[in-house]
Amino acid sequence: MSPQTIAHYLLVVSVKSSLFFIGAALITLGIRRRAAATRHLVWLGAVAGAALLPFVGPFVPSLNVPVLSPSDTPARSLAGESNEARRLASAPAPAAVSLHSVPNGTASLSSELSTLATGTSGPGHEVNRMPLLDNASRLGAGMLALLVAWAFGGLWFLAQIVLSVLSLIRLERRATPLTSSAWERALGAVMSRDRGITLLVSDDVDVPLTWGIRRPIILLPREADEWSQSRRELVLRHEVAHVDRYDVLTQLLARVVRALHWPNPLAWLAEGKLRRECEQACDDAVLSAGVRPTRYAEELLEIASALTPVGVAWLAPGFASRPSLEARLRAILDARPTRGRATRLDAAFTVAGVLALALPVAAMSPGERTVSLHHASVAEVAAPVISVMPPLVSRGAPRPASQRLAQHVASPVPAHAALESLGTAVATQLCSNDGGSHSNWNEERYGTKTWNVHWSGRDCAVDLRAEGEIEFNDDLTDIASISPNGFFDLSVRDGDELTRLVVKPAGRGELDRRYTMNGSERSWDGRAQAWFADFLLELDRQTGFGINIRFPKLLARGVPAVLDEITKLGGDYVRGLYFQRLIDGAKLSPSQVRQTLELAGRDVRSDYELARILVGVSDRYGLPDEDTRAVFLTAVNSLSSDYERNRALQALLSRSDLSSREAPAVLQAASALTSDYELARTLVAMTEKRLISPALHPLYLQDVAKITSDYERARVIIALLGSGKLPNSEVAQVIGLGSNIKSDYERARVLVAVADAYDLGDDARDAYLKAARSISSEYERGRALAALRGR
Q: How far is residue 332's CA from residue 371's CA, in Å, rounded to a whole number?
């Protein structure tokens, strides 16, 4: 992955995270009179959502969202790079050369594309494009500098967190336990339940601090021994509130998120707001216990004025932290806000809101704006294209661009002959280097349709800008017409050579073409036409605007021709579209179905696209024979996403009659699932299809043991119990798996299912009784024991 791609990814995540922070700011503004604990919960949800984004993104389908649309003024082109492009660029030069591929939906795109012009951009003006390579180089250097700065800043702030943790550990080790009976009485007076809190006193702290998650610790300054009993209770009530609310954990999460998003000012705002609301929520807990606000404010002010907080322990919540002291005093003395804890309903709304926002935001990715450049529909325009022309067989070393392009002008030849001889060599040799930018988008703004395509390498660049309604001929080898005020402006640069073609309407259906090389106008002869036709075919293969023209011609040559062309396409999005068109539009024989599945499993890397192809084949053709199902399952095993793998397995289980010989392979594929829900869903489906034979019970039970969700484990066990009689040894194993279920209801449900279906032997009965008696709920324990007595 290139530095440009990583920097672009960080920018996208930062923008997505800002949506959470902005949402939290607006919500807390609207509920500013609610309890501080409720506002803290909202900010915590925003921080948690920002932390979840990088982990949720890989498991949800990508949703392309048009962003940073081009304007009429020149703009920079940000670098993006596809995996397929890197593979092609690094591979040895093949005999058949194709364009550097840029898939519409899978390339890592930046969003600003441009005409890269230094003057008025349009077909009627000569545009200076010589600085194109310099712009791309400066952009790449800028993205690298951004990545380095981001990484150093993130490491610096993470190091601060680590140092703070270490300093707190050092403070804890140097502190001494506080065993005074007065402090024990004060702690007992403020705790509603035993939290195992340890009181320590230290000479190294000046304010009370709370630290620890599993073993909470309250660090008190040595001067605290001189406090009155009432002050001790106030301070401890505040610090115990931090423990009850797990503020150490939430503050640590906020600090980590701020460190990772340190260039984003909204991340700093969120962390500061979370800390402020945290302190005010603990103040509210003190006041809710019946303490007079004026008395509490006096005690807080007196402690703060006498003590100076140290800087080494900034990660731990402190009783009298100065930065928020004035705001805290105002909030304490303000009688209007609501005080108290956040309710379960508040927590439920926050969790639901975070999930409702996290999933679509994580799925968003910078995408293209689609528009029709001819009379096809928008869906047709967004599809990819396949070139039917044979690729060029490369012979010898590539020649300089000046020699190659000059040949197009030297002697006119028929267009089709030029296509056969030129193939895709020009564009490929111009821009096959790794590390360049690759972009393609369509847009319609105020009734004007715009198409922008750009890709570049280390010493080359291709830049296309088109406006208006543009129609191509039936062979997609030339432009047929352009609407009034429209234009098609193409520039190809290789080293110091700049070739440019500007096409615009000339009236009465005619087109005016201006074809130049390094600013010198050349004639539009057969060589130039062949060059442009070849370029259009490769451009079509990259952008996919002509699938409705190309696919029928390919299919007319036979399914093998379509499959062969799919291997030459540039990305999974394009391959996925062609696979879907092949699956839906052709009548594939069983052997062709297998070939389609084999090719998809081998070449399609996107889990989403591959699962969509597999489900499409299953829906259309039903997977009627074992050979086809075996190929299908091989493709399924290449899916890493639990959701997509399970989706494909469900299609396999629901659309075909699997034999007992195939069940082990299906269960093995299901065993790779790590999601409790997805694994349980597949295992239950297999039991319902009667595919789990006694020989498969050991592997099945191994999978059950991996499920941590009480509900999912219980339903999988119950499904197995209902699928047929188990030997006593396996019944005892099932009871053991059920005894690990924490939910009293689910554990009792499993035990009742066992008692209803089996006469237990001595070992199984002992295991049953042990599991039943460990149920804490009296009702559920009685239900499980009654089921056993009923046998």
A: 58
Nearest to 689 by CA among 715, 717, 724, 714: 724
- DSSP helix/strand/coil, 452: strand
505 CA to centre of own chain: 44
Q: Residue 656 and residue 302: Cα distance in Å, rounded?
A: 77
| Dist CA 512 CA 596 (whole Å) | 45
Which tokens sit at 713?
Answer: 């484990």
> Tokens representing 291?
């303490």
Torsion of CA 338, 344, 350, 352, to 10 degrees: -150
> Is residue 448 classed as helix, strand or coil in its secondary structure?
strand
Residue 180 token pair: 């005074």
Task: Supply 673's token pair.
Answer: 């699932």
Contacts 24+ apart (CB under 8 A), 81-86: 81/2, 81/4, 81/5, 81/107, 81/108, 81/434, 81/435, 81/436, 81/437, 81/438, 82/106, 82/107, 82/108, 82/438, 82/570, 82/571, 83/605, 84/570, 84/571, 84/572, 85/434, 85/438, 85/570, 86/434
Radius of gyration of the chain (CA): 34
**CB-count burial class (<10 Å; 0-12, 13-18, 19+) for 290:** exposed
Retrieve residue 711's tokens.
């509900």
Start-to-end C-alpha separation, the chain: 63
Q: How confident is the model at residue 364 (pLDDT cuts 50, 70, 90)?
A: low
For residue 696, CA distances in Å to 189, 683, 690, 701 come to 58, 11, 11, 9
Which helix (H) or strand (E) is 504 found in, with range? strand 497-507
Secondary structure of residue 552 in the 3-state scheme: helix
Among residues 532, 530, 427, 448, the alpha carbon closest in space to that of 489 is found at 532
The C-alpha atoms of residue 135 and residue 152 are separated, in whole angstroms, by 26
Confidence of residue 289 (pLDDT cuts 50, 70, 90): confident
User: How far apart are alpha carbons 551 and 547 in whole angstroms?
Assistant: 5
Task: Give the pairing of strands 198-202 and 217-221.
Answer: parallel
Amino acid residing at 325: L
Round to whole Å and give the CA distance between 680 and 741.
Answer: 15
Burial state string for 21-60 with b = 16 or more CB within 10 A and e = fewer than 16: bebbbebbeeeeebbbbbbbbbbbbbbbbbbbbeebbebb
Tell me the pLDDT tens digit for each residue of 559-585: 999 999 888 887 788 888 899 999 999
Contact indicator for 283, 331 with CB cutoff of 8 Å:
yes
Name the maximum alpha-carbon separation found in the chain: 105
Q: How far apart are CA 343 and CA 613, in angstroms?
A: 46
Say how far apart CA 4 and CA 10 lie, in whole Å. Answer: 10
- Calpha distance 326→305 (Å, rounded): 12
Q: What is the DSSP letter of 125?
A: S
Say how far apart CA 347 and CA 353 lie, in whole Å.
Answer: 10
Q: Is the pLDDT of residue 630 over 90?
A: yes
φ, ψ for residue 318, nearest 5 deg: -115, 150
Tokens for 715? 């339903």
Q: 308 falls in which pLDDT band (50, 70, 90)? A: low
Query: ∠ at Cα 663 (660, 666), nearest 5°?
Result: 160
Which among 336, 302, 331, 333 is positioned nearest to 319, based on CA atoms? 302
Higher pLDDT, 509 or 89: 509
Give whole-number Cα distances, 264 to 260, 312, 386, 629, in Å.
9, 25, 43, 50
Query: Whole-angstrom Cα distance, residue 516 to residue 519?
Result: 5
The 3-state secondary structure of 339-352 reads: CCCCCHHHHHHHHH
Which 3 state secondary structure label does DSSP give 515? strand
**Cβ contact 431:449 at 8 Å:** no
